[in-house]
Structures are given as structure tokens and as C-alpha cells.
Amino acid sequence: MSVIAKGKTRDIRELKNIAGNVRINILHMLTKAGSGHTGGSLSAVDVAVAIYFSKMAFDPKNPLWEKRDRFIMSKGHAAPLIYAIMAEAGYFPKETIETLRKIESPLQGHPCCRTLPGIEVSTGSLGQGLSVANGMALGLKLDDNPARVYCIMGDGEIQEGQIWEAAMTAAHYKIDNICGVVDNNGLQIDGPVEKVMGIEPIHDKWASFGWHVIDIDGHNMEEILAALNESESVKGKPSVIIANTTKGKGVSFFENKVEYHGVAPSQEEFEKAVKEINND
Amino acid sequence: MTETLHNPVLPGPGQDTEKKLKATRDAYGEALLELGKKRSDIVALDADLSGSTKTCKFAKAFPDRFFNMGIAEQDMIGTAAGLALTGKVPFASTFAVFETGRAWDQIRLTVCYSNTNVKLVATHGGITVGEDGASHQALEDIALMRALPNMNVIVPADAAETTSVINAIADYKGPVYVRLGRAKIPYVMPDDYKFTLGKAFVFHIGKDANIIAAGIMVDIAKKAAEILSKEGIDTGVINMSTIKPLDEETVLSAAGSSGFIVTAEEHSIIGGLGGAVCELLSERCPVRVKRVGMKDIFGCSGSPDELLKYHGITVENLIKEVKTSLKK
Fold first, then answer.
1. A49, A242, B36, B245: which could form a disulfide with A19 (CB 3.0–4.6 Å)?
2. End-to-end Cα distance, chain A
3. Domain residue spans in chain B?
4. Is position B73 annotated as part of the catalytic site?
5. A12-279: what CATH class?
6. Domain map of chain A by residue range?
7. Which residues of chain A neighbour B83 with C-beta distances below 8 Å?
8. How far is residue A200's CA from residue A181's CA, in Å, rounded to a whole number?
9. What span, in angstroms and rounded, lies between the C-alpha atoms of B179 and B51?
10. A43-A46-A50-A51 Cα dihedral, nearest 10 degrees
11. Which pLDDT does position B14 carry in this prediction?
12. CB A126 within 8 A of CB A75
């Protein structure tokens, strides 16, 4: 069996090591591609790694295994993050990441479920992942399938009205087999989120929509694991984790730099970044 | 409000009045209910219009498999895609204008690009929505759906064909858009007819003229062709219920036979059936095509009959268009 069982990795040190590898893979593929979204891929690394390697059951050799837990990267521009994780988990050979954004690559600029098995649904046009996650969660419940659905959203992304339609739906249908994550890195393309279109108070917004809300430091692995455990224990309502993160996390010269939202590292920057991550 | 089309769609004196009139949306509601009884993988979603789209019948019988999404079409489409991704066969319904317009990007990304097994069955297509007016009259829905890769587009001509379509698409794997109407309309298809995706139904191929029609226009086209043929103009009628993928061979053989084509649709003449026929013929068999439909304008309030007359979507106008084209 190639199934990666739920709770496979509980060791914090190991999860941190995986996160370091994933960061390097992200930077590697972005540097090779010459374009792509650096900042928002790096900010969500720790939460996504914890979800995949500590919480989810999945089978890289059988991506459509029906008992798998589901993961949707609603902020599709963080495609390099999901690809780096999938490479780490063994969905495809690591060298495939060098084909990111190239013609006929399964690794499209934004995730495509038709070219890459293991991607649950294509994303990229923002605000749509949570609705799909709800639909999956409802379908799983109809089948008495105990699998859970994880959905990472961007903080800028929740400016989309559809997110709040989906937030209403999850509460209305008491969808408790879903765990939303808001990657609250504070920046979007045009600048600070609060300057472009304020979304605060995020916690109160989700709570008033009927969600169980957990606020954490999105780079603290202990807090992340505790939040994921807590979300699993909440019954009768959906849970969302507000992961307070740093855009570009892990590479000092990318951190909190709005200009690295959609820019890939140069070769020189890549080499410098890898040194930083390895010394961390 | 009037829910029945009287003139010209209602059978006139001397015509077959034995069969009752029925709205395609009513046939949908019943077909979906029957499907639900047979298959546990069928689920339905609606955006607060289940009484009008007739998904209410399914909702009543299978409350656990019905999801009222409230007035939130975009969320409805995403949720339907998610349900499809767990192996369900979701039928998502609302009015055509909201289904295809409000949620177009959701349909594009999570239904077509993701190639999910979602059935979009919209009602209240066209101007025969009537009194509610232009905001509620979908005249661009076929164009919007036809432009999307992986999407199939179907416009049934009567209630019986609708039943056949709903059963067929439940067995088909992939995105489908079905456009239904609000008004009660006559039965036009033969009793033994069974819908096949991508296959037009040929009533007759005319030597002098051919009308390619869809939806309520099939009945109007048949009436026009009958009168024309009595006047010695051999006019064929084709029910092009699948607008995408287009039954190219049938269009080409009609064009080859008469040398010109009239298309008839309750939709904008841009991007719908007329557009599809023109695209094919201009490449493969360049002949004159006259498109009868909404001439790049919005509708307005009025009774369905009044609106059809007002916009020239009538038996008389079809006859006129055929005769005018013949003279050219």
C-alpha cells in the first residue's frame, strides 16, 4: 500500500524539515519557470505541510482513492506550494517541478485537475474553492464517507462575494467535515489588504457567519497542529483557521514585500534564499 | 400572468388538438423525480426558484439529496461541481439568465475547465418568460454556454423531448447545459422519438428551403413549412435540439439540398443556433443564411404571444423570410 495514513507525521521537527524542503522546491520551480507567485506560496507553506503530512490520508499512487481526505487550494496562484507538496509526497518525480508553467506540463500556472491527478478541482479564478469544498463535503456525508475537506483561501481572496455565499452554505448545512484556512498574510497585488479593500474584522466576520474560528500564528507548527485538531473536534458547524502569516515567509528579502506577490526569484536570489532556509 | 402561448404556437383550427400543452420545465420536474427514484447518485440544487424550475418535486421526495442554495448562483455552481467530484450527478437549476450569466466564470472554471459531471438545467429561457421583462429573459445563454470547451448545449422542442433529454444526460458523463421554457407549448416530436446527443431530428429536408430550428421555434417552423409547401415551396424543417456539438452532416445536407438556410431561435441571432450554423456553413458550404431571432436587442414586458409578434418571431415572418431569400 502506498497510502499515507492520517497522522503519519506528528513530529514537529520532521514537519519543519518538510516545510524547509517544500520552500526550496517552491523557489526552485519558480526560478526555473521565470514567473509565478512567490510570496503567497511561501506564506501558506507551514499550514499546508501540516495538513498534508499530519492530518490527511491520501495515496499518491491512487490519487482518486475514495477514502482520501480532500485538499483544495482555492488561492490557485499558490500552485507552486501544492506542487512542491505533491512532489514531496510522491505524486510525481521531483524533477517534474522544473516543467512548471512550460508547454504541456501537468504543472499549469494555476492548478488544473485534468492535467494533474491529485488536484481535486481547477482553481485560479479566486473565490471559488470553498463552494467546491462544500459540495465535496456534502457528497462525502451522503455516502457516510468520514473523509474531511481542507480549503486554503487567501486573505485578499475573501474579498470575493462567493466566499461569503459559501460561508453561509457551510453553516446552513452544518458542514462539519470541512476545515477552511485563511492565509492571512496581509498583502495583495495592489498593496496591503487593509488599504486595498479592508476585510477586518476577519474573526468576527466568520464567527457571525456561523463558523468556529481559530486564530493562530500560521508559522508555529505547534499552534497549527492544535488548531487542526480542534477543527476536527467541532461538530455541527464548519471550522476556519485564521492563519496569521508573513508573505514570503522563510526568505528574509522576500518577506512582507508586496512586489514579490507575482514575481519569481532570480538565480542569485534563489541561491541566497536556499542558504537562508538551510541555515534556519 | 399568462403561462400559455396562444397564437401562433397554440394549435389552430383544424390542427391536432388531442395532445395537451405542456411546459418543458414541467416535464423536467417530473423526469428528475423519476430519475431520483431510480438512482441514488442523482442530486439537485436550486437557487430559490425550485417552485418555478420544478425541482421542487425532487426536493419533496428526496430532501436529503436536494440543496436549496438560496439566491446564490455562483455558490450553487461550485457546490454542484464539488458534489460531482464525489461521484454524484448534480442537476443545478435556476432561471437561464442567472444560471449562465451570473455564474459564468464558475461554470467556466469548476464545470468546464475541471470537466465535472454537472448538469445545468435552466428554465425561463427566451422572451416567452413574458411579463417579467428583459432582466429575466435569457437571450444570450446559448452563446455564453456554447463558447465554453467541454460544454454540451441542448434546447428541447417539447415536453416529451425534454423527458428524453433529461434521461440521456443523466447517463452522459460531462458538462451539459439544457435550456427550458416557462410557457406551455404543444408537442411537436413524433411519439417514438428518442433524443440522442448531437443528433438532429429531420422532419423533412426541403428542396427549395430548409428551416433549422430549436426549442419553441420548431413548432413555428413546422407551421410555416406546412403553409409554404402548400404554396409549392418545398420547405424542410430540422429540430436542432443539440446546438453543441452541432449535427454538422444534417446542416450540410440541408444546405446542399436547398442552397439556403433559415435558422429560427428564441435567442439573440448572435452566438446561438444561427451563429453555429453560419460558422459551419461559411467554412464548409457557403450558402445564404437568414437568422430569425432576437436582433441584438433586449426584450421587454408583455405577454409571450405579444412579444413573439413584436419581435417578428412568428409563422408569418418565417414565411416572409423564406420567400424573400428565395427571390435573391
1. A49
2. 34
3. 22-185, 201-327
4. yes
5. alpha beta
6. 12-279
7. 135-136, 138-139
8. 16
9. 17
10. 0
11. 42
12. yes
